[in-house]
Amino acid sequence: MPFRAAAWVFLLGAWSSIAPQDSQPAPPALYISKGACPFEGCVYRRWTARRALDVVDRPGGTRVVDRLRASEPVDALTGEVHCRPLRMVATRDHPEPGSYEPTSPRIAKGETFYLLHYLGEGAWKIWFRGAVTQIEGVPAGSPLPETTWWAQIRTERGITGWVIATGNFDGQDQLA
Question: Considering the entire predicted model, what is its pTM?
Answer without folding.
Answer: 0.79
